[in-house]
C-alpha cells in the first residue's frame, strides 16, 4: 500500500510521545514493504528543510534498519505557539488553523496514496484530512491525547469537573468537529479511556478500534531487587507532572530503603532537588529516548505521579519492556494501561505506600517485574502492525 502520514511533529524536530509513535509507525510500515510519505510542519526555530529527507535512527529498539523517511515540511506557526501571547494563540486556533492547508491537500492528492493516516493535527489545518478524504482517499485518525477538546492537550485531573473548563471544551470540540466536515473512516485509540473521552464530545469514526501503542521488549534478562532500591522519575520537572511527589520520597524513605532517586527531564522545578540537600537525588536532564530507556532499565521502580490526564505514557511501556515495576498515579488511561501488571496505581498520596508494597520482599518485587514484562506482550510491534495494516486495507477496500 501507499500510505500518507500527516502529523504536527516528526523527528528530528519532534521528540515527544506522539511524534515518536508517528516515526515508529512510518519506519515499521516501510520495513514491511509499504510506501510511506510523511507531511509535517516546518520548525521555525530551525528544523528540517522543506522536502528534505531525514535519516532517522530507530530510538525505540525496534528491529529496523535506518530509513530515509521522506518528511515533507510545510509552513506553519505551530512551532511558535509557546512564544505567542494568549490572544495570538487564540487567533491561531480559532481562525488560522481551523481550515484546510491547501498546499498539503494538493501534495497528498498528487502523490495518490491508498490511505491517509493522521496523528495530532494542531498546526496542520483541521480541515486538511477531511478535504483529502473528499478527494477519495480513505482516512484513519490516531488519537494520542485530548488535544481535540483541549488545545494544549493537557488537563489536570482535579480540574475535569470545573464548569468553566467543561463549557470551553464543549465549545472547542464542537468548533473543531465542524472543521472535519465528515468523520474519519477509522478512529483508532491506544486506550478505551481516550476513545470514550472523545465520544462524549461527539468525535466518532465510521469504524472505531483500540490499538495499544507498540514497544519492543528486547532480550530476556534475570532481574532482582537491589537493597537499597533505586527509583527513577521521567518527565517534565513540574508540578502538573507530579515532580513534587517524587521529591517528597526523599523524606518518606531512609537510605536503607532507597539508595538513589534519579530524575530524567527538565522544567521549572529543576533546582528543587538541590534545595533539599539530599545527595541521593541525581538530575540527568533531558536525555535521548535510548538513554532514557537505559535509566528505566537500571532502576528498581519507575515513579509516574502525573497530575494531568495521560493517555498511554511511553515511559510505562518502556518500563514494561524492561521489567521495571511501576508506581503510578491514577489519571486518564494509566490504570487501563497497567491493568494486569500487578503494579500499584492510586492518587498522589498512595505513591509512598505503593513503593512500600513493592519493597516488602524480593519475591513481591520480582512477581511484579515478571508480570509487567508479560503485559508488554499486548504492545508487541508485530501485533500492532498486523492490526494497523489490516485496518488500512479494510478502509481502502470499502
Beta-strand fraction estimate: 15-25%
Basic shape: globular
Largest β sheet strand count, sense and barrel closure: 8 strands, mixed
Helix content: 25-40%
CATH architecture of the largest domain: 3-Layer(aba) Sandwich
Helical/strand content category: alpha/beta
Mean pLDDT: 90
Total helices: the number is: 14
The secondary-structure element order is EHEEEHHEHEHEHEEHEHEHEHEHEHHH
Question: Number of domains in the coordinates?
Answer: 2
Structure, explained:
With 398 residues, the protein is α/β, with parallel strands linked by helices. The protein folds into 2 domains: 2-214 and 380-397, Glycogen Phosphorylase B (Rossmann fold), CATH 3.40.50.2000; 229-378, Glycogen Phosphorylase B (Rossmann fold, 3-Layer(aba) Sandwich). Helix content is 37%, strand content 17%. The strands form 2 sheets. An 8-stranded mixed beta sheet has the order 3-4-2-1-5-6-7-8, sandwiched between helices. α10 packs across α13. The model is unreliable at 46-67 (pLDDT under 50).
List the helices and strands and how they pair.
Layout: E1 2-6, H1 17-31, E2 35-41, E3 53-56, E4 67-74, H2 86-96, H3 102-111, E5 115-118, H4 128-133, E6 139-142, H5 163-180, E7 186-189, H6 192-199, E8 208-210, E9 229-234, H7 243-252, E10 258-264, H8 272-276, E11 281-285, H9 289-298, E12 301-304, H10 314-322, E13 326-329, H11 334-338, E14 345-346, H12 351-359, H13 362-375, H14 381-397
Parallel strand pairs: 1-2, 1-5, 2-4, 5-6, 6-7, 7-8, 9-10, 9-12, 10-11, 12-13, 13-14
Antiparallel strand pairs: 3-4
Helix pairs in contact: 10-13
InterPro entries: Glyco_trans_4-like_N, Glycosyltransferase_grp1
Protein name: Glycosyltransferase
Region (Disordered): 38-57
Amino acid at each position: 500500500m501507499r500510505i500518507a502520514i500527516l502529523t504536527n511533529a516528526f523527528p528530528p524536530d519532534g521528540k515527544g510521545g506522539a511524534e515518536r509513535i508517528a516515526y515508529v509507525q512510518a519506519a515499521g510500515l516501510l520495513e514491511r514493504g509499504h510506501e510511506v510519505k510523511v507531511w509535517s510542519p516546518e520548525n521555525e526555530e530551525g528544523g528540517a528543510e522543506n522536502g528534505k529527507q531525514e535519516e532517522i535512527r530507530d530510538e525505540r529498539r525496534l528491529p529496523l534498519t535506518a530509513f530515509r523517511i521522506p518528511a515533507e515540511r510545510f509552513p506553519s506557526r505551530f512551532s511558535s505557539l509557546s512564544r505567542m501571547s494568549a490572544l495570538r494563540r487564540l487567533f491561531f486556533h480559532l481562525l488560522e488553523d481551523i481550515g484546510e492547508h491547501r498546499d498539503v491537500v494538493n501534495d497528498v492528492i498528487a502523490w495518490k496514496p491508498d490511505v491517509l493516516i493522521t496523528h495530532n493535527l494542531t498546526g496542520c489545518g483541521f480541515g486538511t484530512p477531511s478535504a483529502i478524504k473528499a478527494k477519495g482517499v480513505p482516512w484513519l485518525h490516531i488519537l494520542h491525547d485530548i488535544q481535540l477538546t483541549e488545545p494544549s492537550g493537557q488537563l489536570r485531573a482535579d480540574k475535569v469537573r470545573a464548569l468553566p473548563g467543561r463549557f470551553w471544551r464543549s465549545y472547542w470540540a464542537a468548533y473543531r468537529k465542524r472543521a472535519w466536515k465528515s468523520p474519519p473512516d477509522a478512529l483508532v485509540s491506544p486506550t478505551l479511556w481516550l476513545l470514550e473521552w472523545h465520544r462524549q464530545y461527539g468525535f466518532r469514526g465510521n469504524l472505531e478500534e483500540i490499538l495499544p501503542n507498540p514497544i519492543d521488549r528486547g532480550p530476556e534478562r534475570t532481574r532482582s531487587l537491589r537493597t537499597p532500591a533505586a527509583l527513577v522519575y521521567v518527565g517534565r520537572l513540574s508540578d502538573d507532572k507530579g515532580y513534587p511527589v517524587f521529591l517528597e520520597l526523599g523524606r518518606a524513605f531512609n537510605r536503607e530503603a532507597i539508595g538513589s532517586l534519579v530524575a530524567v527531564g527538565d522544567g521549572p522545578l529543576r533546582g528543587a532537588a538541590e534545595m533539599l540537600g539530599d545527595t541521593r537525588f541525581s538530575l540527568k536532564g533531558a536525555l535521548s529516548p535510548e538513554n532514557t530507556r537505559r535509566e528505566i532499565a537500571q532502576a528498581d521502580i519507575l515513579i509516574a505521579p502525573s497530575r494531568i490526564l495521560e493517555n498511554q505514557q511511553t515511559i510505562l511501556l518502556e518500563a514494561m519492556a524492561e521489567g521495571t515495576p511501576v508506581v503510578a498515579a491514577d489519571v486518564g488511561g494509566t490504570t487501563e494501561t497497567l491493568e494486569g501488571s500487578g503494579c500499584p496505581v492510586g492518587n498522589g498520596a498512595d505513591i509512598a505506600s505503593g513503593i512500600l508494597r513493592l519493597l516488602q520482599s524480593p519475591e513481591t518485587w520480582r512477581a511484579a517485574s515478571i508480570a509487567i514484562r508479560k503485559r508488554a506482550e499486548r504492545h508487541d510491534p508485530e501485533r500492532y502492525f498486523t492490526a494497523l495494516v489490516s485496518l488500512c486495507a479494510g478502509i481502502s477496500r470499502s
